[in-house]
């Protein structure tokens, strides 16, 4: 079956693991899942730790890259030695697919130069020296219960999300404004919030659902109003029963809102996988969620949208899970965007001597942090510090054609065929086997008994495929 194909077998029977048609008469429906995927160890070391706010140290520098989202990069709108205030716009782009960036603090612009980005590239960045006087931090847990949703128009919701620099907080960092602009040609009837947090170790979304659930519900209702959707669904994995209970207490009396309980499996939080698991709809291979009438957003993005619309807050701080056996004080932290990773780790008591690897993100999709002077970004959901007993590097051996990578691929690709094509420098064959459809979830590498770094081959092949296309 080709990726993005029909959800039914040739004989008309529904494929295994496909959910039945949504029963919207229920406030809570469960057993949502999708074909493929894996079950890595849980290792949510910080799920019971409340979010702690991190303050910037006067005299330290913060680094704000002009690229913190998918789309056109921003250009600095501040000058050298200029004084800036927390929340002030320091970078902006004119393109539709973009989002402005804001200062996380009061301070002085020290430099505007290309600096290393978490991606490994050098990106034009604004460096700000933190000033002595900082504004009082605003509370984020308790969202006001009394508000008039109808007092804000759909157009205003989209505009506020742009002004406040909102992007997807789940990691993809897609500008939120683009999703909130209604498209009459492709109407949206379901807004789906992703609260699965299927990546091992990470717990920032889980803590947000426990500590600020009303802001998430409000953000969901705002998104529904912006795109004209009648139904809103919050998808949560069944290993987060406390979050399910907390959310249900709020949605049970609100018309149009539902909870989808998803089976714990990775990558349940993948956009297309989540749509298929919860709604039974399948996004076409090169399509978007709007092609099947769905808008997907992260619970963190929804919370930020609520605070932006009703309190004018910009996206200049976020919850980051700092975890792993290699950090002395793991936890969930509200971190200013632009704070250096090394400063955040120092706040967490530093790292231990037997650290083997530091990842920006979780162990399945996180990128290796080859240097620690890079900043926390809008899309940085976690920092995983792994010790030598949590991480091991094994030698690659020959493929034994066991097909485990094929069986577990949530996109239904042929990972080993694509990887062999990349190794043989036959990029056209890799393209013909849909290399660009790979979501780089790492399931294939995780289950491969030959320890073949399939995802790394595919990532390298994607670069070559882009060059071939040019």
Supply the number of helical segments.
13
Question: What is the percentage of strand-forming residues?
Answer: 15-25%
Alpha-beta classification? alpha/beta
The number of distinct β-strands equals: 18
Average pLDDT reading: 91
Measured between the Cα atoms of the first and last residue, the distance is 29 Å
Short descriptors:
single chain; 470 residues; alpha/beta; Rossmann fold; OB fold (Dihydrolipoamide Acetyltransferase, E2P); six-stranded mixed beta sheet; five-stranded parallel beta sheet; 13 helices; disordered N terminus
What do you see in this structure?
- By secondary structure, the chain is an alpha/beta fold.
- Among the domains are: 28-44 and 146-311, NADH-ubiquinone oxidoreductase 51kDa subunit (Rossmann fold, 3-Layer(aba) Sandwich); 56-133, OB fold (Dihydrolipoamide Acetyltransferase, E2P), CATH 2.40.50; 404-469, no CATH class.
- 25% of the residues lie in helices and 20% in strands.
- It is built from 13 helices and 18 strands.
- It has helices at 154-163, 176-180, 204-211, 213-227, 241-251, 271-279, 299-311, 341-347, 404-408, 415-423, 427-432, 443-447, 454-469; strands at 28-32, 51-53, 61-65, 75-76, 83-84, 89-92, 101-102, 107-116, 122-130, 190-194, 231-237, 257-262, 294-298, 317-323, 331-336, 355-360, 367-368, 382-387.
- Strand 16 (355-360) and strand 17 form a beta hairpin.
- Helix 4 (213-227) crosses helix 7.
- The longest helix is centred in the C-terminal third of the chain and has 16 residues, at 454-469.
- Residues 1-21 have low confidence and may be disordered.
């Amino acid at each position: 079956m080709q990726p993005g194909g029909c959800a039914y077998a040739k004989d008309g029977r529904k494929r295994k693991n496909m959910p039945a048609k949504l029963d919207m008469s229920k406030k809570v429906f469960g057993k949502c899942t999708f074909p493929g995927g894996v079950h890595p160890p849980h290792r949510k070391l910080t799920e019971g730790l409340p979010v702690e706010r991190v303050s910037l140290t006067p005299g330290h520098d913060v680094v704000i890259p002009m690229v913190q989202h998918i789309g056109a990069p921003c250009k600095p709108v501040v000058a050298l030695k200029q004084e800036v205030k927390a929340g002030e716009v320091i970078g902006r782009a004119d393109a539709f697919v973009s989002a402005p960036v804001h200062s996380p603090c009061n301070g002085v612009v020290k430099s505007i130069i290309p600096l290393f980005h978490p991606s490994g590239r050098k990106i034009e960045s604004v460096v700000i020296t933190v000033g002595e006087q900082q504004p009082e931090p605003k509370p984020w847990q308790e969202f006001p219960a009394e508000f008039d949703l109808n007092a804000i128009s759909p157009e205003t919701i989209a505009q506020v999300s742009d002004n406040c620099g909102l992007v997807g907080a789940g990691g993809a960092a897609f500008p939120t404004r683009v999703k909130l602009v209604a498209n009459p040609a492709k109407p949206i009837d379901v807004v789906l919030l992703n609260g699965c947090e299927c990546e091992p170790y990470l717990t920032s979304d889980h803590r947000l659902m426990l500590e600020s659930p009303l802001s998430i519900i409000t953000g969901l209702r705002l998104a529904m109003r912006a795109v004209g959707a009648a139904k809103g669904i919050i998808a949560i994995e069944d290993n987060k029963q406390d979050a399910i209970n907390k959310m249900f207490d709020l949605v049970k009396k609100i018309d149009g809102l539902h909870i989808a309980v998803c089976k714990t499996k990775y990558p349940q939080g993948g956009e297309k996988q989540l749509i298929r698991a919860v709604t039974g709809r399948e996004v076409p291979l090169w399509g978007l969620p709007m092609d099947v009438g769905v808008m997907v957003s992260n619970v963190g993005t929804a919370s930020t949208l609520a605070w932006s619309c009703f309190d004018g807050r910009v996206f200049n701080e976020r919850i980051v899970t700092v975890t792993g056996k290699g950090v002395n004080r793991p936890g969930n932290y509200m971190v200013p965007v632009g704070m250096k990773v090394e400063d955040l780790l120092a706040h967490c008591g530093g790292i231990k001597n037997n650290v083997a690897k530091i990842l920006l993100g979780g162990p399945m999709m996180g990128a290796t942090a080859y240097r620690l002077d890079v900043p926390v970004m809008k899309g940085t959901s976690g920092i995983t510090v792994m010790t030598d007993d949590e991480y091991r590097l094994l030698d690659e051996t020959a493929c034994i054609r066991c097909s485990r990578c094929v069986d577990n691929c949530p996109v239904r690709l042929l990972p080993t065929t694509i990887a062999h094509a990349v190794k043989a420098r036959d990029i056209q064959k890799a393209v013909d086997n849909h290399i660009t459809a790979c979501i780089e979830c790492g399931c294939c590498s995780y289950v491969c008994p030959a320890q073949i770094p399939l995802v790394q081959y595919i990532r390298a092949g994607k670069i070559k495929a882009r060059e071939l296309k040019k």
